[in-house]
Amino acid sequence: MGHIPSSQTGAGVMSVLRTDRLCRSFGNLVVTRDLSLEVQRGERHIIIGPNGAGKTSLANQIGGQLRPSSGRIFLEDVDITGQSPDRINRLGIARTFQKNNLFPNLSILENLRLAVQARRGHTLNCVRPVAHYSAVLDRARELAAIVHIEGEGSRLVRHLSYGEQRQLEIGMALASEPKLLLLDEPTSGMSPLETQRMIELIRDLPSDLAILMIEHDMKVVFSLADRVTVLYYGEALASGTCAEVQASARVREVYLGMAG
Amino acid sequence: MDLFLVQLLNGLVYAMLLFLMAAGLSLIFGLMNVVSLAHGSFFMLGAYIGLSIYQITNNFWLALVLAPIPTAALGMVVEILFLRPLYRRGHLDQVLMTFGFTFVFFDLVRSIWGSNIRNMAVPEALAGAVQIGAGIYPVYRLFLIAIGLALALILWLCIERTRIGAMVRAGVDDSAMASGLGANVPLLFTGVFGVGVALAALGGVAAGPIMGLYPGMDSEVMIPAFIVIVVGGMGSLRGAFVGSVLIGMADTFGKTYVPSMALFLIYLVMAVVLLTRPQGFFGIKHMGSSGNIPPRNAVATAPTTRSRIIGAMVVAAMAIAPLFVNNHQLTLVSEIFIFAILAMSLDILLGFTGLPSMGHAAFFGLGAYAVIVLASLFNVDPWIGVAIGVLLAAAGSAFVGYFCVSATGITFLMLTLAFSQLAYSVVVKWRDVTGGSDGIGIPEKPAFFIWSLESRMVMYYMTFGFFILCYLGLRRMIASPLGHVLVGIRENEGRMLAIGHNVQGYKLLAFIISGTIAGFAGGLYALFNGFISPDAIHWSASGDILIMVMLGGGGTLIGPAIGAAIFLLMKNLVSSYSDHWMLIIGCVFIGCVLFFPEGLWGTFRRLKPVRAS
């Protein structure tokens, strides 16, 4: 495990995440084509693109849910291509899902507790009740506060509002104490008010955390992005700051033009 | 005729019989995601109905053609009345439902046709043998090969070339989409179920003259057919055919050329295929697609003062019970305690982790056989035997679990079932050590410290004590971080992976814990019963444990214990005044799956007003 802390190799020089000529196809359908992108420490890197551009397929390859056909993925120079999702999480990438993917029949705190427990161990203990691990429980409560979920932690997740469930998604990912946070459309299906709250939530996350985020809502993109990459049929059409991407004629033509 | 050619033909005969079973199983699974455990029962039922038609009309051909019709009709009635209401509820319930029907059909066949072996004569036109090369070969067997190949071809043409076949293919691919495109999916389900049953029934009649008819012939063909569809790939007709030929040949040639290994050969083929190509040769649905069983019972809340008091009262009542009951009842309750331990151990897998094992009795048997075999052959102290049995069960469950835990849902069920049948065959065939199908016993029961277990009272208190110990231990585990991880896996395996839990590892651990405790229960049973026979590890014994868990309520600890009590009480009470206890318990179980999917304890707990803690 050749993991080197970034401070020793010069912060800012080495990227947290790097994909190298990533390709993935299903039969004749190419969903990721020669994609090379980087996310720096503390950077908010947002992937946009029309439906079917291969955004979620990209997230699934980085998160380990989908194996790339070719190309490599590096997390701080550790090759994580094709690793299992749990291993990728332990190596430092935590993700959220486009469709809420929680434990609906368990409580808010139990959801977070399971995620914290994966990070903080004790999981093989089969004698001591979970209630005695106060540090784990405290961390779960702290996470609930970080993602702005208020009220009784013993509520079942299936009884939460949709927006709260989206927030919990992020809390679960943060529990893994990741180097890279991978957010798959955190605001999808949200009302404008909920979206605004989500923007604030993401903005308040630690500034040195690298975030790779897939987003549809341009308002979110303009409020958060340090860097935007436009995907179109699996290919990176353009990559740069918001202004640079907006200025790109190709992007206007195929993406912003279509979005109206 | 040279031996090789004979074996080749015999292999083909077996392959064709397997195909008639596997084709239906595979199509039904592909379309509805249901593995019908009653498929073997339809095979048996078809054979017996064929026998009756043959006896009345004295015409084999009429039997062959007519027997599938009432059998298929019965199958469609079962599908419409009992499976259809459950499509929304997840597939495990349907599998359990079909398991309930194996009891009903078994009892029916036994009471209508008796339990002796019945022979069916080969029809006169096919009675002779033909000259092939230097030797002769029975015509009837050649006819079986021909009919199998012909049906395979017809089925293939129906699936590939007809409109209905296109709908079936679309349904296998995506049944929601198929219904969106205008296919009448419920009708399609019923139709395919009926065709599958008809094929099985036809296979039953055709196999009659060479296999003989007896209650229990159902599992004889069903387990290999399961292996066929696991190997060939579920949902694929081509897979069913190729798998049948492979397994048919492996079995036949194995028995001739490597008789000592023959038993393991088909399981070996299965293991190799699963390790290299988990979805089977032509699998359309990947193993993971069926998912873990849906949650039934919410996680128990911490015990309140009131529930502690009630619990203490129940324990106290059990402790003084021996003063008030007779010896026979005392023995029955001791047996209940042992099976309660066994059912609770299965529930760790089934109810808490979401993995439906249909092979749990194998570990129970391992524990029991260890005690008795070691004591009777090597004079080992039975308590040391219990310890060795527990270790063997741990090792055995680690081995089996290694192969099984990458699968989920129905595939997991079929794999565990196949492995347990492997254990069953080993026990039956290894006569020198296990006593074969006669079973094996120890002359006298050992002592528990200074008290002889020959005393029913001592047996009662010992099993009671171990039951309480196991219950408390498991309750502790459920409340621990490990227990919570297992529930997390049941609830959402994909998310457990994404938050960094090594799901495969924990599933294996759950499998080992569960198997080890089952081994301990088996050891106790050996001490209790002093005798063990292969019946205890037959796949239907595993099914019995599953019934206990589901009757009482999966996902709870008290539920399985209650279920074990109900099951054994019913078995004892009903069998004391009626021969039809299987019919009755089958019906009770079917009713339970239909109306109380959470089990009795689960339903009770849900109805009880919840107090905020």
Give an account of the 3D structure.
- The complex is a heterodimer of chains A (260) and B (613).
- By secondary structure, chain A is an alpha/beta fold.
- Chain A has a single domain, classed as Rossmann fold, CATH 3.40.50.
- Chain A has helices at residues 55-63, 85-91, 108-120, 134-146, 162-174, 192-203, 218-224, 242-247, 249-259, and strands spanning 17-26, 29-39, 44-48, 70-75, 78-79, 93-95, 180-184, 210-214, 227-232, 235-240.
- In chain A, the strands form two sheets. Chain A has a six-stranded mixed sheet, with helices on both faces.
- In chain A, helix 3 crosses helix 4 and helix 3 runs parallel beside helix 5 (162-174).
- The longest helix of chain A has 13 residues, at 108-120.
- Chain A is globular and about 60 Å long.
- The N and C termini of chain A lie far apart (48 Å).
- The relative contact order of chain A is 0.17.
- With 613 residues, chain B is an all-alpha fold.
- Among the domains of chain B are: 3-214, no CATH class; 329-535, no CATH class.
- Chain B starts with a helix and ends in a 6-residue tail after the last helix.
- Chains A and B meet through helix 2 and helix 3 of A and helix 19, helix 20, helix 21 and helix 22 of B.
SS content category of chain B: mainly alpha
Rg calc of chain B: 25 Å
Strand content of chain A: 15-25%
What average pLDDT do the residues of chain B reach? Answer: 88
**Count of runs of 4 or more consecutive helical residues of chain A:** 9
Gyration radius of chain A (Cα, Å) is 19 Å
Estimated structural class of chain A: alpha/beta
Mean pLDDT of chain A: 88
Q: Trace the largest sheet of chain A across and list its strands.
A: 6-7-8-3-9-10
State the domain count of chain A: 1
Distance between the termini of chain A: 48 Å
Major pleated sheet of chain A: 6 strands, mixed
Number of helices of chain B: 26
Major sheet size, sense and barrel closure of chain B: 2 strands, antiparallel
